[in-house]
Amino acid sequence: MNMEFVLAALPILAFVACPLMMLACAVGIRGMARSSGCADAVPSPAATREKRIAALEAQLRTIQAELAAFQETEDAPGANPAAARPSNAVPGGTSAARRPA
What we know:
The chain is an all-alpha fold. The chain contains 3 helices and no strands.
């Protein structure tokens, strides 16, 4: 081959190589996603919404139970309200972890 031809074609090959490699990578990634079943693993929006609602309702029940237990300890005669407060809580309602520096 003529060395001048190779040197003249080198910038064109470098310019074309980048988009071709991007295309090859995109095809490879799509193939890996199909073979691993990622496309089938995406839940429908309705199922995701239902699961989120169920999780939030469970969290609400837990918080309501904790609130009821806290109110019972405060209402008990001779109860020490400071003892019912978590150890990391500070007077004023913010916990030590959430207190601004």
